[in-house]
Specification:
Layout (H helix, E strand, L loop, with lengths): L9 H4 L2 H8 L3 H16 L5 E5 L5 H9 L4 E6 L2 H10 L6 H5 L1 E5 L10 E6 L10 H14 E13 L7 E9 L2 E12 L5 E10 L4 E11 L3 H10 L5 E8 L5 E8 L8 E8 L2
Parallel strand pairs: 1-2, 1-4, 2-3, 4-5
Antiparallel strand pairs: 5-12, 6-7, 7-8, 8-9, 10-11, 10-12
Helix pairs in contact: 3-4
């Protein structure tokens, strides 16, 4: 008698892109910051936004929801993740909104998209450019793709915990139930700056989605990033630091600062103005 096949586990049935969006991304907050900061810098709203390394294009979709005049272009070299974004994110837009989003299977080092009000590279995605000349070349291409009053938005993280081999776990209430997000800093080389990280997920039935995402990065420092932006021809470069709430947790409010705090871990935004 043939034994019945075991039932699929929660990890077997999980959608890694949905888990990522529920754990890591908050496109509403990101667009809030980008839209408000551009207005503060340029005293007018932005219309055209390009999201480099766009993944599932959640930010592009949120951008076109904000105003009927907003347009977004997303660029990524992963056809599978772009396909997921079209099926799950673009499909939730109405017809008029979807027409104002263009997703491109292309390399950010070579893509031609016309001039933009905003280019953004978030979730530390540009850290896959591990050589100085590659990152400088990317920054130069971004500057060339901006309008004269355009602004480049990017983020970074650091602190002394960034150099440690460590894991961080968070319980997430997702659409399909509760799961655990695990950030795994698996390797760091202080000579080259090479940083290898993984994201794992565990579920209430004891199953585990191992290495749902893996990253082979260089841990770029803020001084290195700022100096390369200036070398690429950008004008003013600002760093936005996050504050703390009364419970000692990050408050999600980023303000421009001249000096940061030597914390165990921090996340910052940067803006680089074309001129």
């Amino acid at each position: 008698m043939t034994k019945p096949l075991p039932s699929p586990t929660l990890a077997d049935r999980a959608d890694r892109h949905q888990l990522y969006e529920e754990s890591v991304q908050c496109p509403q907050a990101e667009v809030d910051f980008i839209d408000r900061t551009y207005r503060d810098l340029r005293l007018k709203p932005a219309r055209r936004l390009r999201e480099d390394f766009c993944g599932t294009a959640a930010l592009c979709c949120e951008w076109v929801r904000r105003r009927k005049t907003n347009q977004a272009t997303g660029i990524d070299i992963d056809d599978e993740v772009l396909g997921w974004g079209r099926t799950h994110n673009l499909a939730r837009l109405d017809t008029a909104q979807a027409k104002r989003v263009s997703l491109r299977l292309d390399n950010v080092l070579a893509a031609e998209t016309g001039t933009q009000d905003i280019v953004c590279a978030l979730n530390f995605s540009y850290w896959l450019l591990t050589k100085r000349e590659s990152l400088l070349g990317y920054f130069r291409r971004v500057r060339d793709s901006l309008k004269p009053d355009g602004v480049f938005f990017l983020d970074a993280y650091g602190g002394y915990d960034a150099y440690r081999l460590t894991t961080e776990e968070r319980s997430i209430q997702g659409a399909g139930g509760t799961f655990t997000y695990i950030w795994d800093q698996a390797h760091y080389d202080p000579i080259s700056g090479r940083l290898i990280c993984h994201i794992h997920f565990t579920f209430s039935d004891g199953s585990r989605l191992e290495r749902a995402f893996s990253y082979d990065w260089r841990l770029w420092s803020l001084p290195e990033i700022r100096e390369l932006l200036v070398e690429a021809g950008f004008g003013r470069v600002l760093c936005y630091w996050q504050g703390w709430d009364p419970q000692g947790e990050p408050d999600g409010i980023f303000v421009p600062v001249e000096e940061g705090e030597p914390e165990a871990g921090w996340i910052a935004y940067l803006t680089a103005e074309r001129s």
